[in-house]
Amino acid sequence: MNINALEPVPQASPIRNSHNPVLATVLSIVPGLGQLYNRRWIKGIVFLVIGLSLIIALSAPIANSIAGMITLGDNPETDDSRNLLVQGLLSSVIGIILLGLYVLNLLDARKDAKKRQEGIRTPSVRQAFQDSWEHGFPYFVVVPNFIMMALIVIFPLLFMISLAFTNYNLYNSPPAHLLDWVGFANFKALFTEAVWSKSLFTVLSWTVVWTLAATTLQIVLAFFLAVMVNDSRVRFKRLIRTVLILPWAVPSFMTVLVFTAMFNDTFGAINRDIFSHFGVSIPWLSDPTWARVAIIGIQVWLGFPYVFTLITGVLQGISKDWYEAADVDGGSRWKKFRFITMPHVLFATAPLLIMQYSFNFNNFNIIYLFNKGGPPVPGQNSGATDILISWVYSLTFKENNYKMAAAVSIIMGIVVAAFALYQFSKTRSFREEDMY
């Protein structure tokens, strides 16, 4: 028996040729030439025609628009700084997208050249299209949506950020005046000028207190009610749950308006029909402290039904075997709640509960509808119950102070993003997602 016959026959390595990937990449500086060098004729012609058409048609408008964004106009009679800023930002977004496509053109030429250099057969146009459809289907779906998001979401965000670095306010408003870039002057004013710094820190501190108090209370109340109703000894569970979610079924703006009338200092039902029997009249709308207490109470009423429904669904999914095993081991009600109920609920609902904090941080409706951010506070340009989002609204639509509104919006976005990212990173569900 020939032992050598059992040895594997070495496979012949691909025949390498002199095809140069570097040359293909350099030629692709003119879109399509690299593909033509790689003998991808149809792809090369398509890239060449589309690339040159875009370069010829868009190069000058994009350059002019970006230049106008930098200067923000030279003559107030003919230039509108807002239009120049919008055109410049839009051109920048389109330019970045086109630059990304241009880089993909270079990488595509280099990749095809490497395959030809290694002797790998270049697929036909039909085969290449089928392979791209099968392996790159997620990109075909995601990329158009990303482009739309860039134009619809990112573009307004960039416009808002840009306004924070200009002097756009009621007294310097286009088209009568041209805007100027002022750098970080608006942010400096927020933290150094007495009126702005006092307003900022007061509103920011109340926003944090409001978010933590209102959201935590509604979660605790919902958790307590869900656990109580889920108890096996409670009868008429469906009726009780239906009644408890009724505040969620009524439109929130209607509920807030009704509560506003009930909390009125003079003719409100709470003072007139309840506290009047004790000789007490609470200034719910005119006193800052009582106005804040009223708003927190209203938000707890409005917010707990959603959390109650969420936790109820999780509780019904917990296996009874866990509790039976705990009974066998002599576990108390508190231990069963601590080691079975709470971990299951928090693991399933933590991301949504965190989003409740983010929602209340920007909960404009209740603040504006209840008292429009009032009552006013001496020495501030913000109301006692104003949170950041309602203060931005007041600066924008009442005072036309667009530059400071944009600056506050940036601070607000940073706070929300940092808080949400930190909280999500600490949740067990977030950490375990990376393990799969």
Description:
By secondary structure, the protein is mostly helical. It has 2 domains: 16-183, no CATH class; 188-433, MetI-like (MetI-like fold, Orthogonal Bundle), CATH 1.10.3720. The protein contains 19 helices and no strands. The protein has helices at 21-27, 33-37, 41-71, 81-117, 125-135, 137-163, 185-192, 194-230, 237-244, 246-249, 252-262, 269-274, 288-317, 320-328, 333-361, 364-371, 388-397, 402-426, 428-433. Helix 8 (194-230) runs antiparallel to helix 15. The longest helix is centred in the first third of the chain and has 37 residues, at 81-117.
Summarize the structure.
The chain has 436 residues and is mainly alpha-helical. Helices cover 71% and strands 0% of the residues. α6 (137-163) packs across α18 (402-426), α7 (185-192) packs across α8 (194-230) and α11 (252-262) packs parallel to α16.
Q: What is the CATH C level class of the largest domain, in words?
A: Mainly Alpha
Oligomeric assembly: single chain
Number of strands: 0
- CATH homolog superfamily of the largest domain: MetI-like
Topology:
Blueprint: H1 21-27, H2 33-37, H3 41-71, H4 81-117, H5 125-135, H6 137-163, H7 185-192, H8 194-230, H9 237-244, H10 246-249, H11 252-262, H12 269-274, H13 288-317, H14 320-328, H15 333-361, H16 364-371, H17 388-397, H18 402-426, H19 428-433
Helix pairs in contact: 1-4, 3-4, 4-6, 6-18, 7-8, 8-13, 8-15, 11-16, 13-15, 13-16, 15-18, 17-18
Features:
2 domains; single chain; 71% helix; mainly alpha; MetI-like fold; 436 residues; disordered N terminus
